[in-house]
Design brief:
The structure holds two protein chains of two kinds.
Chain A: H1 2-25, H2 29-53, H3 63-95
Chain B: H1 2-22, H2 26-46, H3 50-74, H4 88-112, H5 125-132, H6 139-160
Helix pairs in contact in B: 1-2, 2-3
Chain lengths: ~110, ~170
């Protein structure tokens, strides 16, 4: 049963790496946010895979639920994060005529 | 059956992530993100988390993607090119850990191709609903999450509003 975990790890690891690559290889703020979403999804996938096929699945009954719960809270926080981050990006665009994340270099006018 | 659905949805997730990272235009990356998120929703279903797959579909595929597309429409299309020259040194440092990580993951993947024991899915929605409303389990995190969402909603509306010209 542990062997089957590995295939989910492969998908999770690859998604995580691609997310990191998306975040660091572009300077557009929207690309950075998309990379963050990929990373969050990879982490949540690992939580669920562990809860299903890891040691937790053989433990007490409530333990198998924890993985799903973690993933649900990750989804909630990712939604909040995306909304606030896009608000910040729009504000960035009003202060600097660009959303290049390497351009902003001051906090006030 | 489960093997096939894993390969299909895992392939969707990987192909989508790859396209997000490599597509030259922002809108194409946003639609590739839909593919990746759909793949992850399917992987949740193969893991027996039917409720979570539905949440992923509603919140990520339906909500966050729309938010991204609005974000793309409201901002200029600048700096979408690769900024690779700055990546040479960090990439050089990252080669070893990334290689080890992918090697381990690949070895595990090879081992898992022979594994055939998969668990039967059990409906989880009722259990999750009860856990959210039981004080000893997840009632307080659940209520705090609604506060976080309210704060994020008010905060993002405040941040995104247009300032008066002065």
């Amino acid at each position: 049963m542990d062997a089957i975990l590995a295939r989910y790890f492969f998908v999770g690891a690859a998604m995580f790496l691609l997310g990191i690559f998306t975040m660091v290889s572009r300077r557009n703020a929207i690309y950075v946010l998309m990379g963050a979403e990929l990373i969050l999804n990879a982490a949540a996938l690992n939580f669920v895979a562990f809860a299903r096929y890891g040691a937790a699945a053989r433990g007490p009954a409530g333990a198998a639920l924890d993985g799903s719960m973690f993933a649900i809270f990750i989804v909630i926080l990712a939604a909040a994060e995306a909304a606030v981050a896009l608000g910040i990006v729009l504000q960035l665009y009003q202060h600097f005529p660009s959303i290049d994340v390497s351009k902003p270099n001051r906090l006030s006018d | 059956m489960n093997d096939f659905s894993f390969l299909f949805f895992g392939g969707c997730a990987l192909a989508g992530s790859l396209l997000v990272a490599l597509m030259p235009r922002l809108v194409h990356s946003a639609f590739a993100l839909v593919l990746a998120l759909l793949g992850v929703a399917g992987l949740y279903w193969t893991l027996g988390s039917d409720f979570l797959g539905g949440v992923q579909l509603l919140v990520y595929v339906g909500g966050i993607t729309i938010l991204f597309i609005y974000g793309i429409m409201l901002t200029p299309k600048d700096a979408t090119r690769w900024s690779l020259p700055g990546l040479v040194l960090p990439g050089f440092v990252a080669v070893v850990p990334v290689g080890v990580m992918l090697h381990l993951a690949w070895k595990g993947l090879e081992a898992s191709l022979h594994a055939t024991t998969t668990l039967e899915p059990v409906p989880s929605t009722a259990t999750i609903g009860e856990a959210f409303l039981t004080r000893d389990q997840y009632l307080i995190p659940f209520e705090l999450a609604s506060l976080v969402l309210l704060a994020a909603l008010v905060g993002s509306v405040y941040l995104a509003r247009r300032r008066k010209e002065s």
